[in-house]
Amino acid sequence: MPEVDAWMDAALAGHEHEANQRFASVGADVGRFVADNDIVLVGADNIAVERDPGQTTDLPLHKIVLRDLGGYLVELLDLSAPAADGVTSGMLVLAPLRIHRGVNSPVNPLLVA
Question: Could you tell me the pTM of the whole model?
């Protein structure tokens, strides 16, 4: 089983997520920070941004960011290549599909450094 900090490496190598596999994540308390700082997007390199959805059906941060704030969650965000190149800042550009009342849109992020 991969270590917590090697989750993305395991995912990119094609290893399936196991029920007992852990990864770094954020909790519902991040919702207040997102709201207080007018943040529209939260991204993470794991499969749910917050805790493993296989462990529970209750995802409070999803409810806060998506439903209450109208924001976006980007899962499986891989920024390892720009990090390896020493990029420490830039503008992340992405455009979700415009589907009325839709959720779960594929995106192709572009990092302008």
Answer: 0.73
